[in-house]
Amino acid sequence: MADPLLSVEDLKIHFFTFRGVAKAVDGVSFDVQRGEALGLVGESGSGKSVSGMAVLKLVQPPGKVVNGDIRYNGKSLLALSEKEMQEVRGSKISMIFQNPRTCLNPVMSLGDQIDRVYQRHTGCRASEAQKRRLEILSRVGIGDPVRFSNNYPHQVSGGMCQRAMIVMAMVCEPELMIADEPTTGLDVTIQRQIMELMAEMRKKMNQTQILITHDLGVVAETCHRIVVMYASRVMEIAPTRDLFKNPLHPYTSGLLNSIPRVDIAEQPVPLPGYVPNAFKRPTGCPFHPRCSKADDRCLAEQPELKTVSAGRMVACHFLET
Amino acid sequence: MVKQGAQAADHNGLVKEVLLDVRDLTVHFVVRRRLTGGNVIVHAADKVNLHLYRGETLGLVGESGSGKTTIGRGVLRLIEPTSGEVYLAGQSLNKLRGRAMRNLRRKMQMVFQDPSDALNPRFTCRQTLVDALRYAGCPAGERLRKAVELLESVGLEVSDLDKYPHQFSGGQQQRIAIARAMAFKPELLILDEPTASLDVSVKTQVTQLLRELQDRYNLSYILISHDLSNVKYMTDRVAVMYLGQIVEVGNTCDIFANPMHPYTRVLIDSVPVPDPDAVREHTILIGEIPSATAPPKGCRFHTRCPSRKEMCDREEPHLVRIDENRMVACHIGES
After folding, report:
1. Are B20 and B87 in contact (CB under 8 A)?
2. I want to staple A290 with a disulfide (CB 3.0 to 4.6 A). Which of A138, A186, A205, A273 is the partner?
3. Do B285 and A268 touch (CB under 8 A)?
4. What's the complex ipTM?
5. pLDDT tens digit string along B107-138?
């Protein structure tokens, strides 16, 4: 396989709080290939968002990257200074967040906020940034770019705010886009519009994307490969089709069986138990308290993420040969 | 329309009792524009007719701003409807005031989206439940025993009694909120996005709990949700809302198998499906739900409808009965 665009190696991010150390990410490794859309799937507290933030070095104290490396085009991002990192953010790697409204500046018009990003990275004149903004806005299907630009975040809907965020993230044509729950909280109809927009960006600009979400339907329709996370660790990595047709990890199959679906008549079977607390992760395999197959070994020994077939990796004692 | 207190027979010949009957419920909010002068009326719900049989679950679906929650709150009179009538088991709620309304409201409880907001953070689980039981008229000596019973009925343990809400996970908090609602021995539960804030693997647990409780106590549910997968799993009938009006009602299996209103079809097609091989039609709905202050003339959906006709922007379609259970408000299907 060609050199990956981004590779995360044995990443550990711990939050040092008064209540103790929360291991938000505990030994996570995955690669992102050029031009692909990678889905990072997991429930809340699985460490998927923190992993995404770490790529842009946005983890704030009390959180700290305590181990591992993140390589972008072969170079370590963690070794960069804050000043060097600022050149990367927005121009090479961008991120869009859930809740676009809270991420936008409420006292600045949407247009000005977009222009600011472009001017910061290109150093061009205001008129040039404006031209660029109008061009991109009409490219993403906004009917009246001038009117849209004059709006303030509170004057437009959540879907429109998300679009402004996306435009802001893509105005410099970054190679890599990290989207953290970009459609959560939006209506299904608007979600569909945003999904189409992101797919188009990937095709037209040959963008690489990491999609962080808990929605298995969204990743099934948009991603090439999927990383399943649970309790700060990677459980399974597989091409999308393989993952849905033949999930190997008990957590993945349990999760797939537990969601109600519009497309099939079968009844969902709930997974028993709850997601473990970040301060008190279970010993051994983090999934063992909820796993029907778990035995003594799962309780004592943490399974390693191992390649089981081409492109497929699983962390489960039962799949080791 | 179903007659008040009437009984309808289903295809198995079983007699179904109408528990809740909502007639022409209209809720308008007046928004005062102090600076620019003049008032604006938000048409949150316009002449909504609904009925709910005892023991069934009715889903209310639609985009945000379609008026689903308004209907739920209007039924409980948590917001005062502008006009229209609501009957619970044949009794009109409109004239009730004060104590009489409070007494009747015990039969109708609501479960909210975010349990961490719905529970008092300074009350232990015991206090929350005992408090509810006191209002439910349970004698003082029996409250604790009842509280334990309630707790166990929602799958929690006695050892959880003295914990505060923050010590529970979201799914457990929602269980406590459900237990609290059950303290009143309600006949009707209005579930406003009960699983929207929960984790994927926990959602189905809570949904299943609600179904068990329904079977055990013959409860009737109104499920307000934009999660169509969950609606399909949980409900017997569905009402699809758009801009304050019902555009389609029918049995859940019929609606999902054969949506008749273009809006229903788009909603169902838009749900992402966890099957990479699924071949599906994606009609992308252009634009967003228009403002409820000035709903479009004619059919309210005509501005976004993929299959609109010429007459749609002039004439307002009315709900037309297609068969025994199905009603649709659309000009396309009319011949």
Report:
1. yes
2. A273
3. no
4. 0.83
5. 999 998 888 889 999 999 999 999 999 999 89
**Backbone phi, psi, residue B242, to 5°:** -145, 125
The C-alpha atoms of residue B326 and residue B194 are separated, in whole angstroms, by 26
Cα pseudo-dihedral B131, B134, B135, B136, rounded to 10: 120
- What are the DSSP calls for B55-70, one per residue? T-EEEEE-STTSSHHH
Tokens of A146: 């001038």
Q: B75-102: b or e for each residue (b if 16 or more CB lie within 10 Å)?
A: bbbebebbebebbbbeeebeebeeeeee
Q: What is the pTM of this model?
A: 0.87
Which among B64, B172, B230 has the least Cβ separation from residue A187?
Answer: B64
Question: If you count residue pairs, one on A and one on B, with CB atoms under 8 Å apart, how many are there?
Answer: 123
CA distance B124 to chain A (A): 20
Q: Which of B207, B257, B246 is nearest to B268 (CA)?
A: B257
CA–CA gap between residue A102 and residue A194 (Å, rounded)? 18
For residue A254, pLDDT beyond 80: yes
A274–B172: do the CB atoms touch at under 8 Å? yes
Least CA distance to B155: which residue of chain A? Answer: A273
Q: Measured between alpha carbons, how far is B223 from B234 in angstroms, rounded to an integer?
A: 8
The H or E element that residue A9 is part of is strand A6-17
Tokens describing residue A264: 């099939």
Structural domains of chain A, ranges and CATH numbers in brackets: 6-92+174-314 (3.40.50.300), 99-173 (no CATH)
What count of other Cβ atoms lies within 10 Å of the Cβ of residue B158? Answer: 11
Ramachandran region, residue B36 (left: φ > 0; alpha: ψ -120 to 50; beta: rest): alpha
Cis amide prior to B272 (ω within 30 degrees): no
Q: What span, in angstroms and rounded, lies between the C-alpha atoms of B266 and A32? A: 34
Helix (H) or strand (E) holding B51: strand B39-53
Q: What is the mean predicted confidence (pLDDT) over A253-267?
A: 88
A44 vs B contacts (CB less than 8 Å): 199
